Amino acid sequence: MDLTPMLIGGQWRPAVGTGKTEDVTSPYDGAIVGTVPVAGPDDVEAALSAAEAGAARWRRTPAHERMRILLRAAQLADERAGEIARTISAEVGKTINEASGEASRSGEIIRLAAFEGTQLYGDTLPLDANPGTGLDKIGFTQRQPCGVVVAISPFNYPALLVLHKIAPALAAGNAVVLKPARTTPLTALALAACFVDAGLPDGVLSVLTGPGGELGDLLVTDRRVRKISFTGSTATGERIARMAGVKKLSLELGASCPVIILPGADLDLAASAVADGGYVNAGQVCISVQRVIAHPAVSGDFLDALVPRVQAIKVGDPSSPETKMGTLINSGEAERVRQSIASAAAAGARVLTGGARDGSMVAPTVVADVEPSSAFAQEELFGPAVAISTAADWASAVAQANGTAYGLAAGIFTSDVAGAVRAVREIDAGSIHINWTPLWRADLMPYGGLKGSGIGKEGPRWAVEEMTELKTVILHGRPW
Ligand code: NAP
Questions:
Q1: Largest CA-CA distance found in the chain, in angstroms, rounded
Q2: Which among 146, 194, 257, 286 is annotated as catalytic?
Q3: Which of 133, 196, 393, 417 is the most buried (most CB within 10 A)?
Q4: Which backbone phi and psi does 12 adopt, to 5 degrees?
């Protein structure tokens, strides 16, 4: 397979120091999808020094000019969406339908970010309201780019999660060094090509392919880096937070998202939404439905509506338009998920459907009578299984919903406005969905978790804010 080179300082090139390459393989059938360089320390140094020069140049580029280049990149992403979708499906193992949906959002994310990069407004400061000052001073705030941004992304949405970092970072005037997941570098390289072909100056975007465990520390500890934007597991995020030193951090981390179902809820709606929200991308979504907490009066009817829907999910070849659910990222992950389900069953939970593994595929699974304090509910599963437990009153439902280390997103199904309002007030999650599951995202909305699910928000407006720094400016006149 031909080498797909990485991008450093405007050059598409192999790994200079290591000279190594590695294959990217399909999780479905092991076919080689592409070959990429394995970057080493020399490449990290080259990317960071190019980014330092790129940042100096890009911050002096007017916002309208940055927007023009980004809009061109968005158009290229639109034109290449079919090819990008095939790459996503091949390297992630997600269905071609899901991959097409993901790829088709690329251009729009870039456009939203391009606009936000032109909206770096400041405030005027009413300094004369402060005793000891007068009318002789004028104060205002101004935003400027952070400088060099390191973006590190996971495998599960290799287009969306890359673009939610690099598009706002570039729109705001930063240079970016991107380290995509080792399993899914080809999508990131295809997206980077859209920016390069749109005329992004050399050094403003670099993409390093290779092992995060080796490249990560070099990137996040470097003093030339001012901002780190990371999406991935809580364990890796915690390590980055320990290593980074004095830098701005955005961390989008793990989750165990709950859905509460109250008496009076539309159970058909809840069942069809959970049968979708627990199994999209084989459950490898940070906002996947992992736990359903149902009132005992409705849990039986809810399960009766849910199980046949889950059994109808067709698993198989991701490239077939008939397939509803593809593979996990590799067979090791599939085995981890199978074992988690088996451990829950051994501890007394009931597997109502699914539970089996075939290579990298795990059958869509529903597990009832899950003990809320068990590992199956508490630890992020990142697989196609939903855990059902019951809660007899509001206080215990909220205690269960809030009772993990995470707080990314939550859903509640209810016909009662008071219940919805209470959920909004009392559930600790970065987003709360009334009469839907957590598995929903509009690209323009603020998106990011509380507690162990992270720090900061993505979504172009919020990401642009987090990728810029605020300066306070005072004009010192003289009393007259
Ligand atoms: P991961 O193992 O933490 O990897 C994420 C990225 O970090 C990859 O690019 C990885 O590189 C890199 N990395 C690994 N070790 C590193 C280190 N020591 N320093 C710096 N970077 C390092 O996560 P994943 O398995 O790819 O993704 C699944 C996780 O992402 C789940 O926990 C999921 O909930 C979370 N996620 C969160 C959100 C959100 O918005 N909150 C969205 C999507 C996913 P390699 O691939 O080369 O190891």
A1: 82
A2: 286
A3: 196
A4: -85, 115
Residues 6+ apart with CB under 8 A from 242: none
* R_g of the chain, CA atoms, integer Å: 24
Structure tokens at 366: 């529903």
**Coil/strand/helix, residue 475:** strand
What is the 328 CA–ligand 1 centroid distance (Å)?
A: 15
158 lines ligand 1 (CB under 6 A): no
User: What tokens appear for 186 in the block?
Assistant: 């080809």
The closest alpha carbon to 193, from 50, 20, 4, belongs to 4
Return the H-helix or E-strand segment holding 76: helix 63-79
- Dump pLDDT digits (tens) for 298-310: 999 999 999 999 9
Q: Take residue 379 and report the two structure tokens written for it.
A: 């630890």
Of the candidates 101, 104, 89, the residue with the CA atom closest to the CA atom of residue 320: 89
CB 256 within 8 A of CB 406: yes
8 A C-beta contact, residue 33 and residue 91: yes
**Residue whose C-alpha is closest to residue 411's, from 445, 385, 435:** 435
What lies within 8 Å, CB to CB, of 280 at 6+ separation is 98, 288, 439
Tell me the per-residue pLDDT of 195-215, one tens digit each, with 9 for 90 and over. Answer: 999 999 999 999 999 999 999
Question: Of how many residues is the chain composed?
Answer: 480
CA atoms within 13 A on the CB side of 449: 28
| Whether residue 116 lies in the annotated active site | no
Measured between alpha carbons, how far is 174 from 196 in angstroms, rounded to an integer?
A: 15
Rounded distance, CA 338 to CA 333, Å?
9
Model pTM?
0.98
Residues of the chain with pLDDT under 70: none
